[in-house]
Design the sequence.
């Protein structure tokens, strides 16, 4: 099948999230990155394009130039979809221009800086009939989709409480001065990050996960935010009370100063008949609790899951999807060896490992045949 | 950087392991699949090549034809490396021919059917100075590499016991007749699977993991294998006693009939000073036990790990590598939408989710500013 | 050592918490139950006394009668300490009378119905120089004491966030009518339970656990409570925002309608240098998180713990304290057998199990001596 | 109900297992310790008796003297049951004498030194119609009994593999000389420990657990034992292959040198339809695995368990039995306070904690009533 021609705004050398988008697009195998504006610094942008094998004439100086050039190309050459992976404040202006010129978009969150900007983008998407994907990545996990399906089926009865958490600790090393390497400090500057650090960056993921899995809308919030130290202007931590309707309440807890927490996004939905719990750090485990039955653990790649969960997991049961990256690591070491680059012996198993393996298998079979006696390997 | 031109033998439509190799090669981004013999059935092979966007003239009927045609190509066109992902019995003849004709290889395990074949491949690799990678995929996990590094550092003291397990349950549904869909039944036929089913397919992974992490060689084995039912000829289950030297002993337990076990490969190495435990189903957790200190849990993406572990993990701490697949799922849904294909609303978050998110963030910030009062979302 | 003579108010036949107090007092072996008012119904009280082997003349009709009789006894006969295990509303009047008459007290929580009552008891305790223990049982766990010690040592740096949870689901079966057996319904009646159900019964445990482990005082709260259904008068669920000082905030989440949750009390204290997490359902695991070091798991019965933790754990490492109950179950079965009562063969291992064990040990030793050959058991 | 009069042989000051027996007997509340031979050293024995509140004239010098004196007492005074908690080598002679004189016995394992001794005790028990309980304590756990019931029900289908483990690390500190405090060194001396250290002390528990839960008999064993260092005479480590019948095999792995392992006894029974896994360190979790359904976690105190499991758990769901010890710790601190002994403020919650709790509850209720505003505590 023909791959979709993709452009990218941002995501040049050293950008973590741009690399994630490229890897994901290669994994799903429906996209081909062919151009973009990878860095505000044009020289760095070109350097990136070269490294990535992208044609230099599709490495543009600005988004305007990108739009100008690409819209003039023949329909079967033109970039069809653009991934926006810039700092928060640039999402809106770039998204607007690109939508108005007919590009489908994949956009990092938070989508914009203000609600009005967000509403405007929504109108543009509708008007131009374009696809706009916002990367609330956690909704791509198979067991999150299974959770949504189970809740939609009514199996939980009346929902009685919703509790979501998103705890990280990485800002500790910045605000306490032990780590100046981390590049994320634009997140603490209202000009680049918007109205909020913690809630805008991660709280909103927890919010999205609640609405995604339950199909409910949060009606009202009451929040208590904290900037933890006196000199920081944005929230680094907070608790948000939620109201969904007359009786249903919930809570979101989010923090960037929970030292030692890594990426602790969890959700629990409690119903009158059963409850569901999921956590991102072990994403293949979905727990269904009940007062009257043993706790059930749902895992991917089983006939008992719905089709949306199953479509999202391509490995057999018990193989976390990260096994592709393990295999990719071995491919990476192999590539180094073929190219004559330096590599560590640990990076891929060689033919000698194969010899050892065959000796093992045959010694094992022989020992068994000989009535369980010792055999040399 | 120029990608390595890769060919593939086997791995056509419906082949699970071939797809895994292709995904991994795309993730690491050093390889480009340009040709191969994807299926013994030429029509199916061509169908696969078309689907994958591979040029029809590099979809070959046989491995001989593949070698013939590719070796005649110019050096900058010729396939440099070949992935062999056929059933076990074909690994050896194909690997031999390909090595003799100068192709680097990535080969599935078990490498061959006999020890002599394995030794022959080892000689060929040395003679032709080629790269040969055997995909003991589990050695690609960051925390397995960390385990190797810690053991190499001597931190465990004298190793006193080694215990590895590989328990699966999938053959249950075949031998008890409840599932005829599973395609793996060639594994029960000695002609295709070789001398062993359980030990050849999975026991050997446990064996490799022991030698990889400890740097030790298994000297002798005593095994007790079981075919579980009377009519099966190969082992589906077994225990193997291990001797490493005068005092050090260990055990490998492997089974394909442990109903409900998914892919339970684990390893524990016990030393006089400390011990290490790792399990594949939660691959980001490496446990270091000690009699005198709290148990330590090592996780990827931290400064305390060695460089081999860190090079193998590209996400920040707390993001299991499978998150790339979650993001890929969202890209997949987006591609469907752009192409006008049918998709489920759960498959990607839209601009409307972005609007909801912005409303949430601003309501939260406003509630806090207003002295913790309720705000509409 | 002479045991302390204990009385009990409440806790007769069928009372769960009274039985817990008696078991605990027998385990620690410093108390002997010699009298009390075990039930408002005198006949039931006497029946209980008889069953328990308590002298009938120390089974009193009322607390007044109890006080009257006991205070007249000789100092070396008189009950010294009284455990109050009645419904909430009776704690205060009984505690007051008993304190005024010189009895030490062990009292179930919540201590009283109002703050004024609580302050009055505090004054009485001071005035009469008596010991008053309130059974916030969770503070008796070794790893909770270790948590307190670690925090007191300053190892966490500045505390930045505190998060405690107490989720149960048992009221579900009552409010949704699927279970009428459960006796706790007095908890839903303000007359007996006081101002609150969920917060008074379990939220207060979470509150106590925070103050106990951190040594901090909660200064202000903002709560959002829910009665879940329209006809219930008390809270069954709620979230409480906490303020400890200028910068430190926290949250308590408590609920009795989280279906499937059993007794999910957890606490997390996040500091600038390290963090601690503990959960009651696996009470022997205390997790210390850090941004720069592997997560450490503290367990009881190790030299690395402080003396308060170690004093509270009497088993070697790896033996959960519940193993005493496992052994008690075997003693119970043995008692049935000695008394000629009916028992299930599963209730205790017999001499035949001993024979099997000896055969096993000797067959194992013989097999090894004979060079690893099969031996009959 | 009248308590059974119990004697004890061994278990004096400093003896861990004797204390465990006494606690267990107090918890189940069916026994009263009234005499014994607590130490080979009569002075120490008397010191223990005094401390325990046991009448000095029932603290005997020898077992013979014990038997002599007790058998002469009136039937309603005489000790009925004796707990033998001496080193291994003394179990047999004492058990024999006591059985021949009509005492019921609770005996520590391993029951004897030889198979012949074991068979002789079995005959004596039958002849004298006495109760003999061997303390394979792990069979007292509720979820072990549930496992036995589930297997007996046939729910697993045909059993296909059995795997039990018992890993400890405590001997490390002895054989490597880092700890000379540990008193268990008699376990390394064949004269006191018998034919085996590791298998006799802990392997036999794993063996018993297999036969207890499955109802199957081990027919044959093949073992490979290790003494780890050259100067130790007994096994400290080993693997035992098991045969149950024509097709069913299994394995026991046991070790005392798995550094950092605490008391890692686990069992897994794999069947054609489902499988069960249990581990002692988290004894309230019994996992049922299946190829076709989500993993089920059974926990105590639920209607879905059988009566044997339920009879053995006296707390509500989610309360590990160890909570009694937590409460006992609070009682212990209270006793210290009442007696005027020194105690740490962490040892029991006082009336001040009660005041804090009442303030919290009322501030929470008031905040909610006032429309979710801040209230002072």
Sequence:
């Amino acid at each position: 099948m023909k791959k979709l021609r993709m452009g990218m705004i941002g995501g040049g050398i050293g950008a973590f999230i741009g690399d994630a988008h490229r890897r994901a697009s290669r994994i799903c195998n429906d996209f081909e990155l062919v151009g973009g504006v990878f860095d505000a610094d044009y020289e760095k942008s070109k350097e990136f394009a070269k490294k990535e094998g992208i044609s230099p004439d599709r490495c543009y100086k600005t988004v305007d130039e990108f739009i100008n050039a690409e819209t003039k190309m023949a329909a079967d050459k033109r970039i069809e979809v653009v991934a926006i992976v810039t700092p928060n404040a640039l999402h809106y202006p770039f998204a607007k221009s690109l939508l108005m010129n007919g590009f489908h978009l994949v956009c990092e969150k938070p989508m914009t800086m203000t609600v009005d900007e967000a509403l405007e983008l929504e109108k543009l998407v509708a008007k131009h009939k374009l696809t706009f994907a916002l990367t609330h990545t956690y909704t791509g996990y198979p067991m999150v989709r299974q959770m949504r399906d189970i809740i939609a089926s009514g199996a939980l009865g009346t929902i009685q409480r919703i509790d979501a958490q998103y705890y990280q600790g990485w800002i500790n090393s910045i605000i306490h001065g032990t780590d100046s390497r981390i590049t994320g400090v634009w997140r603490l500057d209202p000009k680049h990050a918007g109205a909020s650090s913690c809630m805008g960056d991660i709280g909103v993921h927890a919010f999205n996960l609640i609405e995604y899995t339950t199909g409910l809308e949060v009606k009202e919030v009451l929040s208590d935010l904290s900037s933890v130290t006196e000199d920081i202007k944005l929230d680094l931590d907070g608790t948000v009370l939620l109201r969904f309707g007359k009786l249903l309440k919930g809570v979101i807890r989010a923090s960037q100063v929970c030292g030692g927490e890594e990426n602790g996004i969890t959700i629990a939905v409690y119903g009158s008949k059963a409850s569901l719990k999921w956590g991102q750090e072990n994403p293949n485990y979905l727990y269904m609790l009940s007062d009257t039955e043993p706790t059930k653990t749902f895992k991917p790649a089983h006939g008992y899951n719905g089709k949306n969960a199953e479509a999202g997991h391509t490995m057999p049961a018990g193989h976390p999807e990260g096994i592709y990256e393990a295999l990719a690591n071995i491919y990476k070491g192999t590539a180094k060896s073929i190219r004559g680059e330096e590599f560590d012996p640990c990076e891929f198993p060689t033919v000698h490992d194969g010899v050892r393996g065959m000796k093992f298998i045959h010694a094992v079979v022989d020992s068994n045949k000989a009535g369980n006696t010792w055999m040399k390997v």
About this structure: The longest helix of chain C spans residues 351-369. Chain C touches chain A through 46 residues (CB under 8 Å).
